[in-house]
Amino acid sequence: MYQPPHFREADLAVQHALIKARPLGLLVTFGSEGLEANPIPFVLDASASGLGTLKAHLSRANPQWRTFDPEQEALVVFQGPESYITPSWYAAKREHGKVVPTWNYAIVQARGRLTLRDDPDWLRQQIAAMTELQEAARPEPWAVGDAPPPFVAAQLKGIVGIEIEIARIDGKWKVSQNRSEADRLGVSAGLRVSPDDASQRMAELVDSRGARPRE
Questions:
Q1: Contact assessment for residue 90 and residue 99, using Cβ atoms and an 8 Å cutoff
Q2: What does pLDDT average to in each consecutive run of 10 residues of the chain (215 residues)?
Q3: Whose CB has fewer CB within 10 Å in the chain, the N or C terminal residue?
Q4: Residues 93, 97, 99, CA angle at the centre, nearest 5°?
């Protein structure tokens, strides 16, 4: 990933927070059929290894778990808030007009060797952990135990677990740090006019990051 220093986010806690907030990662592998990519919800076990371990599952009907090369690292991409940035928001547009559109975003890329997990207990724990995380905020959370045990057992036979011990992780927060304070204020104000949640989240990131010098 192209990483200008002023956009780089190297804080592991910040990277992990984005993964937990946006757990649907794009799993990219290389194997006998070439590149393969599938969106999959992951659970991050931050304490399982130095940089954390990602756990998920694939449908047995999905060929990715059969065709990937175990000698090659897998890549998982987690996309955070993103938004188009119009040059109309920049103070610089009114000053000299030498501005162009861009796109702001926060993203984490994690790499590591992919390991298959086909043990029913492992699969049950992974499914339970993922469900608990997503259901926690609901007034009446659904749990795996709410479904009949024979039904759950049958469903587990239709999936294959995957585990990726993260060997390298990169974060990039491109949120107008390379613009002047006046331009950043214009971007934040412009984003806040929009009612959608993504724009509001991006405005918060622009406000919180501030300017960073080019290195």
A1: yes
A2: 94 98 98 95 96 98 96 97 96 89 97 96 96 94 94 95 98 95 95 93 91 48
A3: C
A4: 75
